[in-house]
């Protein structure tokens, strides 16, 4: 008997069509149906949903849903809005995503390490001024979050010669990286980071974690990269520290509201680089294969992939 799978997403019709076109051929024994096209008869037959930024209420309306597979790594909206849902939530875990993130982290770390923002400002003023180059081994880079993305990024930075430290909720070990944990370790990491990179998941504990007080622990003139979630950083506090020179530059790929509103002061701040959430886009080719493999395995054995721990948010 053919299985029905829902595709639920608050994304464009073009994006939905692209995902369905990639995933459907890999699910020979199942029918992948857009949520909007599910009939009343089909609704109770659906045990699995594939989701891309879904409306949580749409999932709550599927009475026999057992688990959802996100095509993205971020699932905080589902966790926040459906804390007591009976179904499991599975994040996208794609080794290709970790490699893509490590590439972005390395590129923008070099951007800051080699003073690119400073030279760009000088170009605009037609100023020919050379500055001393800091040795890679003397550039202290701190990474907040040492999950799959953080670990790969840390390893890539070490290979490139940076002096790398990392913080995670639970102490871990990465060759060549000084690993820290706990509140004292968190503060120590901030105090020693010339370049701070945020790769933390958004949870109740990490929301506005980088507030004015904690950003003030960074060495004066430190710079910041946020490739995690905008809500982790207090934007007002960040702007204040940028204005005083406590933070010399911020590379931001994520924001409280996306797209970033035109009236946001971040657009015009001279020491902010604004990116349109492009640091680690999901690769539809590799992600579709992972989704199909997880779904097929479930229908064959009843096994649900490793799910999000709701109390942790990831």
TrEMBL record:
Domain D-isomer specific 2-hydroxyacid dehydrogenase NAD-binding as annotated: residue spans: 110-279
Annotated keywords: NAD, Oxidoreductase
InterPro entries noted in UniProt: D-isomer_DH_NAD-bd, NAD(P)-bd_dom_sf
Pfam families recorded: 2-Hacid_dh_C
Protein name according to UniProt: Glyoxylate/hydroxypyruvate reductase A
